[in-house]
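Re: [ENG-882] Designed sequences occasionally contain unexpected residues at chain ends

Forwarding the minimal case from QA. Structure tokens:
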């Protein structure tokens, strides 16, 4: 049911929470998210939508169905970091004690904010708090609930925390709860990242200021994973993953860990680009060897032309050039092509 989603405090002692929902051409997801947020039973919160230059009917529909919701239109796509920063600034200017960044492709439990606030009050060293995030399509199956850094392999491993409040190497940006005092101390999200790893950078900046990151396992969120970018293996995701991971690693990790990250990138290149060479039996002689070599070359050429691999190479090139911010237009074109192929079943 449409709602203003603006709840007046029942007590001067109740902390004020502003929920920032970033929308970019996600009308249906955002409406579902707002309906879910409308069921939150915390006594002093308000939800706001930052629209990142949508060209669908998002803003018109949200205004019609949720007339009391604060909507800020950025006028262009500022990415996750830039769009959320607009909402964070507004929240701080309007007296928020806590800010909850919530992906628009999520639905939340009614006690979400109560659980987060209690965790923040009992863990005063906490800088970033994230939820137990389950797959929307598979309730009960964890998508993200805490990670630990693997120094040997150069990536984060899942912890899948199911109970209590436990420390995590980094908090997930799908549902990120942050005390306003922490934001004032460490600053806003770094807009150079644009999309992905910006919250990881934020968490590591908080850790450098002696804050801890926690997963609050009783804070339940269900997530329609990667709905806005077309999946974790889409060209858009591949581009930002390689570029931003390397940029983040260079900024925050010691040399051995940075080397491990680069080796992990190399392993991914080997898996994605270079097909396995199938050695023919000796009975076939030179003819079979030539055939096997030609087949390997065809597979390599096909891999080099795949949209997500081309995006990956552009991301790696842009990292080496120091080019940050949004991706090149051709990456979005490849992403659109991949989406069309996926929807057509090809």
């Amino acid at each position: 049911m449409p709602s203003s989603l603006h709840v007046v405090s029942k007590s001067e002692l109740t902390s004020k929470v502003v929920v920032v929902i970033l929308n970019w051409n996600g009308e249906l997801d955002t409406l579902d998210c707002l309906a879910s947020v409308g069921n939150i039973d915390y006594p002093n919160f308000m939800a706001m939508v930052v629209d990142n230059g949508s060209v669908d009917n998002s803003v018109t529909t949200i205004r019609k169905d949720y007339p009391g919701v604060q909507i800020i239109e950025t006028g262009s796509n500022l990415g996750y970091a830039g769009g959320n920063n607009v909402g964070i600034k507004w929240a701080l200017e309007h007296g928020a004690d806590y800010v909850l960044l919530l992906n628009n492709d999520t639905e939340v439990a009614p006690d979400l904010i109560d659980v987060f606030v209690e965790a923040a009050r009992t863990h005063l060293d906490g800088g970033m708090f994230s939820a137990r995030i389950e797959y929307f399509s598979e309730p009960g199956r964890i998508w993200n609930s805490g990670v630990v850094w693997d120094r040997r392999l150069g990536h984060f491993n899942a912890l899948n925390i199911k109970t209590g409040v436990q420390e995590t190497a980094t908090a997930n940006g799908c549902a990120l709860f942050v005390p306003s005092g922490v934001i004032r101390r460490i600053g806003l999200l770094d807009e150079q990242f644009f999309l992905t790893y910006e919250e990881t950078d934020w968490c590591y900046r908080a850790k450098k200021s002696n804050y801890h990151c926690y997963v609050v396992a009783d804070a339940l969120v269900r997530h329609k994973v990667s709905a806005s970018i077309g999946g974790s293996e889409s060209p858009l995701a591949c581009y930002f993953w390689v570029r931003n991971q390397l940029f983040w690693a260079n900024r925050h990790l010691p040399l051995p860990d940075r080397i491990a990250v680069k080796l992990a990138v190399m392993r991914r290149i080997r898996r994605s680009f270079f097909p396995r060479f199938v050695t023919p039996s000796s009975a076939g002689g030179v003819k079979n060897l030539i055939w096997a070599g030609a087949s390997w070359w065809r597979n390599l050429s096909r891999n080099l032309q795949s949209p997500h691999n081309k995006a990956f190479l552009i991301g790696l090139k842009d990292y080496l050039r120091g080019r940050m911010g949004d991706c090149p237009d051709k990456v979005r074109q490849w992403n659109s092509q991949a989406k069309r192929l996926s929807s057509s079943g090809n």
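QA comment: On inspection the terminal residues look reasonable. The chain has two domains: 17-223, 235-344. Proposing we downgrade this to a documentation issue.
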